[in-house]
Amino acid sequence: MPKNDLLLKALRKEPVERFPVWLMRQAGRYMREYRDLRAREENFMSFCKNIDLAVKVSLLPLELLKVDAVIIFSDILVPLSALGVEVEFVENEGPKLSWSGNLSDLKGYDAQENSYVYEIIRRVKKAQDEVPVIGFGGAPFTLVSYMIEGGSSRDFRKTKLYMWEREYDYRRLMELLVDTLESYLSHQIEAGADVIQLFDSWTGYLSREDYEEMVFPYVSELMGRLKRRYDTPLIYFFRGSSSFIDLAKQLPADALSVDWSVDLSVECVRSDKVFQGNLEPTVLYAREETVKLKALELLRSIPRRTGYIFNLGHGLAPDMEFDKVKLLVDTVKSFRIN
Fold it and tell me: Is there a catalytic annotation at residue 25?
């Protein structure tokens, strides 16, 4: 059990003296120390696979920000390489993926191809016992989107057309990814992850009908399988949160990580779910007094006797200022629950 177990207590809805805080992409290019470590590897994928560097990067937010949880440094796309998808990261452009488009050309998932991820978890756990360690993975739809689009997209047109016009292939692909993620995340748990977060980053581009019929069943199946095997808490992050929140509440997740479209002062009363989020990241481009004001406004709106974890509605950006990120964390940590 970590010395600081605020995150775990919040996930269990136990009383806490303050709300725990960690930030998505809390280890990133906005940190000079991260940039120095990143310069040691030629490309991003090799950086992810360098266990020594990945452990150091994972620990930076604990050392520099004093956050209440460490999320391991990796990328949601790494399991796809083990399926035979070619994944590379192009500087200033982002991920580029390629495969034939035929399911028969994908190979069965071999968890050992991602053994470096599990070793990162073990070493982060060994290096510190202060805070919980969060493992993670991309949700099935998010991974499918990257595979079909070949990278990120403005409208996910290819993915939607694939879903609508090749439904049989789409569903087979989603089933394959559920199996893959069950293995991938199970190995993270067995390596020592205290919490698992599932990232559904592109659901905000979907209609409610498509989410309900083509995404929700697979997320539910994946989480259900993990819950039947482990008691490790699961957090589900999904974009376009206000559109699908009533459905997401039905998932076997311990917490829902939501974007800024959700009014948590209302949802925390309506539901017995634990919530995480949902400060809009753009706030961190504002003046320091505004950063502090917006954080306190959100904290004051949360019912005191509820499970809540402070986070952003999405991840930190490379061009944000470290001092403002530190101010945000310090402001949250100074807010006491009476």
Answer: yes
